Queue: 2 jobs
Job 1
Amino acid sequence: MIDYVFRVGGEGGEGVISTGEMLTVVLARSGYEIYTFRTYPAEIKGGHANYQVRAAGKLLLSSGYPVDVLLAFNEEAYHKHINDMRKPGGVVIFDSDSYTPRQDPDLIYYGVPLSSIATEKIGVKLTKNIVALGVCAELFEIPAEMFEGLLKDKFGRKGEAVVQKNLQALQIGREYIKGQPKRDPIRMGKGPRETKELVLSGNEALSLGAIAAGLRIYAGYPITPASDIMEFLAKELPKYGGFVIQTEDEISAVGTVLGASFAGKKAMTATSGPGFSLMTEMMGLAVAAELPSVIVNVQRVGPSTGMPTKTEQGDLYLACYGGHGNCPRIVMALTSVEDCFYGIMRAFNIAEQFQMPVVVLSDASLGHRKATVPVFDINRVPVLERRKPTPEELVNYKRYRFTADHVSPMSVPGVEGGGYVCEGLEHDETGYPAASNHENHLRATKKRYGKFGQVEAIANDLARAYGEPHPEVGIIGWGSTEGVIREAVQMALDKGYSVGALHPKILYPQPLAKLSEFIKGTKAIIIPEVNYSGQFATALRKRFAYDFIQLNKCIGLPFTPKEIFDKIEEVVINVRTGRTVAARI
Amino acid sequence: MSAPVALSPQEYKTDEHPIWCPGCGDFGVLDSLYKALAGLKVHPRDLVVVSGIGCSGRTPGFIKSYGFHSLHGRVLPVALGVRLANPALTVIGVGGDGDGFAIGGGHIPHAARRNIDMAYIIMDNSTYGLTKGQCSPTSPTGLQTGSTPYGNIEQPLNPLAMVISYGATFVGQGYSGKPRELSDLLTQAIEHKGFAFVNVISPCITFYNTYKVIPPRLAEVPKDHDPSNRAKAFELALEREKTLLGIFYKTAMPTFEDGVSQVIARAQAASPPRLEAIFAEFG
């Protein structure tokens, strides 16, 4: 079965990412499942950028390894990636105007003077990317009409002349390579999928899901790697009568979200670590005032400014425990591009249903990778709204009335009889400040925490399990590691190991019933996290007297399935031989 | 604007009794606000009063309305959210000089340049009353307070000059001891289409009693002042001998909400709101 990894590397700002994206769309349109991974420098121009596309005739759960095809635009790209190549049999296409590598006998090389073809024959330097795509189209038998269609879609708005230049570049690339004998076995042709799928990134799927959930007001401040959510919504929300405002900082962004929610609209902000740190005080206000709100954190490497374009799962502590006081909020983590759509819809529902802030954790690797997903079904997650007061409840209206399920009817400005003060001071049922009423504080705190019972039930429903339901060695993961864990579990099952994984989607409150059931009977549990300290493992240790084995990766890159598989294998062997296991890599 | 309602100023009072010290200037501001609301026939159900933290922060509880007692310094972001969500509401922000000019000072330029259609009233007592009398951004140089036992070494900021330069479209100053003039000023501020800023000198009787110092300094903005003249307004704001009361600057500019509705109209004219149509772009 076809399953190839393509990687494009070169100078940042010279079209590496867009070359990778074009290859992605063409392969998806050709009927393949796609999983991409991109890294790009923190600098705007210069620095090394690369884009990886894995294409296969089956569901893909990870970015794949090793690399089957490397398109190296310069020497740096060649050296950076050559050790990731499949040997023997990997294919290297290089710009012979830039650099000619000393050839490794295990690899197959095609040198193409991409730069001089672009400047001399087309007259536009950056068309070297399209020339390179022409080379790939011809060499790997990727349907040419897909490339032509894409170039028309992509450049049509810039006019016919631009389209023609690019088509010419594609053709010249194809012609050039036709003159060389084909020495590699890669033949793509059409993939097995007949139906149309979407090709989009986690951030794009999340933006669409938010619209489907009824988002109307978005407030945010630019920050990598979350800004494209704001830019996407800025274009789309006004069509729904909504609006995107770029505020002066992240404090203002959540403040605006809370004001809009108070006035009856579904509102959201998205940020990354530094902005999320600024939001913690407002998150406390949302808890105290019981305001439905959605706060997305596309995590990047911290602390402080950290590594803005690199990925990490380092903000779980802050998401769960950030802020002062006893401050229950809900924390969800998105697991895949598809889950970015349905997950954010659930986040809005939970926020509305329980009148609480919901923190939604994504990360740089998930937010920016593209994948093929079945066209979204906007009816799969029914959209829920907050509880409104009945006419009877508007007589002597009590905004924070103590109820059996701890959720009170929420009035909005404009409703006769529903006036109240939305209050960050401790308050009684009416909203009247009760900053010196000791008994009321306990009762009000219990009310706010009381909602957790129902959320925990939802958390139990949403947790997903893979592999053996009662395994010898278990894996508990969260967030964007779901795909790699699934793949690693499959590799382990194929070797005959007794392995299974549990992947909660709501992390706070924890799905305790599901976790207890899963943990019971295991001999060892591995918790892989893309962070240094093992934040979820630490949270689980507070609940379960169990010696969880941490697997932490803290280099700004996601796990590969093999890294997790290797750990599984080590633990399986150690369990069988009764040896103690290493706690960390 | 919502359906008007005929209420007396007293009918805007709630059952909640102000927690302010007897003699606090904020009583005068609150009474003037009741009067302005009654005069404008603002319906309580369509009124949102947003406050921050400080003595002024409790104001929403004393006015029949929907209130939002937010965080220290965050009146304007919350008010912006309310305006975005429902532009039919009358939104009044209230804060103190610490809330507005210190911790929340970063929001004023943006609320002003956006020209959000709201009134923003600062009750300026040049001290931190709720925390018992520390130095504030408008405390005079040399003032001895709990946090400046050797005297304040900083320059006070000039709220009016600051807000005029930020691009607010209505800038005025009042005094809590002149309720008739103040309710007139607040009326015009609430009526104004755009961001209306009113600095109200509202003495703190407990921690920084200026009741004797302020009245002799007071004077009205000259009758012949043209409030559309921004340079002249700025000049008046820089006046040091006297504390001027009245409208310094007033101009008509498109509001933020005008801009929002134009964007919505343009986006909706370009394409209908269909998720499926967006999905098609990701093929």
Note: Residues 484 and 561 of chain A are 5 Å apart (CA to CA).
Job 2
Amino acid sequence: MTQPLLEVKNISVEFKTRRGALKAVDDLSIDVQPGEILGLVGESGAGKSMMGAAILGLIDPPGRLSKGEIWFKGQRIDQNPETLRGCEISMIFQDPLVSLNPLKKIGDQLVETILRHKKMSRAQAIDRARKGLIEVGIDPERLNAYPHTFSGGMRQRVVIALALAPEPSLIIADEPTTALDVSVQAQILELLKKLCRGRGTSIILITHDMGVISETADRVGVLYAGRLAEIGSTNQVLRSSKHPYTQGLVASTPKIDTSSFGQSLYQIPGSMPKLDAIPTGCAFHPRCTQGTLKCSQERPPMMNNAAACWLLEETRQGI
Amino acid sequence: MSFITAKNLTRRYDLSDPWIVRQLTFRPKRFLTAVNDVSFSVEKGTTYALVGESGSGKSTIAKMAVGLLAPSAGTITLDNHNLNDRNLSPQSQQSMRRRIQMVFQSPYASLNPRWRVGDILAEPIQSFDLIQGAKNQAKRVDELLEQVGLSPSDAKKYPHEFSGGQRQRISIARALSSQPEVIICDEPTSALDVSVQAQVLNLLKSLQKEFSLTYLFITHDLAVVSSVANRIGVLNKGALVEEASPKELFTNPKQDYTRMLLNAAPKML
């Protein structure tokens, strides 16, 4: 195996409160290979966005990276992420309405980004910005337009052009299509995939939609209460999920499937625990239908079949 | 027997410049037809889903159905009463409004953050004068909270103390509090997580069975529709391009636009 582009080793993100430290991300490790699209799924509050913020060093106080190391291209970056932020690692945010400056023309925003990270003249940068817009399917004549004159899907295209402008090797896309329509979502995902495959850029795709993952990602990590529940190839995780939480998530996704009309969807009982009341042992055990006594006492480690669940150990011993 | 009937429903918005600007620039008036000649009917106790992209006129139809907007042409009637009829007496208008309620898209914006949940749920009861006496009202509020899967003690809390899914349950309880016959759901789950979405959709279905409610369900996600709708209408640029049962629509879509929507919906492996 080649050296991973990004290695996140056992990181924790803590928020100090009067009642003690709350762990938004708890002892989590992932790695991203060059050119790979890694999906991160989970419900609200699972720590998906915190993960992205941690890699970029964008955690606001009182939150802090309390433990662990982040390595990028063989270099440790959790001490000084500013050097790489926006340049080697860029970010696409959820809401294109908010992530563009409404007072600046999109051309100026693109040129500013390019000049900040690349050594070139202004004329060259403008030329680059035009090419960037053509790539994402926007008429380069609109360089002088303001963000409010674009529709939601077009704005997200501009944001993608902006993220690709400094030619990063990793893009963190935090729910890039949640604010968009289904048909526009399909276009944007296709575009993102095409551009990144063409350049060999890796993506960390953060979303709560299993459908988006199954269409886009190569590998997927499932997060629950700040911990990694399961990780593996998209095919394996979605088709033969091992962790009961993943199974529940897959089952509760509505499908266009002629056999299931009018039937109720599967629902996972209960809801995500609050950070100040994370259950002992496996964080999922109160909602798990197959939980045992051990689940409520000891936290399951990552089993070697890439899911953190005690049930898998027992079946293995049974064999 | 159809319960909600829309006949040749049309809504135009006037986008013209002010009069003086038109005089100076010699430009004519401009109109946008948001809903164009849409006709459909919904049977009592069933769910009719309107599907389309942003700007296809879904929400405009919803607003006309509850009487928040008047149609430019055509009618939408509920149980043969026209909500937008100017000749209707205020009393009968009020009694019509009781029978039709709405659940909005964002549970973060549709609940007053300064009101306790109990007050939010009691407001429709008081304004339609359904139950007299504070004690009886409070009892009804407790009952509503239990119906949507919350506990009576939640009546004392404020909306910010709840998660998105719980807030949408409060929205649903508020819609139920006037004992309506029709609930218009305008993208009720698009702000929610997948697992929470399943809970809310299942709740809506079980309430429909219990109170024989009629739903007009508005969404852009065909996958969501497949589990709740009895009939689906596909809207494109203000016009109803296709209408069918879910089975027909998914197995044999007749329009290119419907096919495009079906292809765009993310598929699970």
Note: The interface with chain A takes residues 53-54, 163-166, 193-199, 201-202, 205, 220-224, 226-228, 230, 246-247, 250-251, 260-269 of chain B (CB under 8 Å).
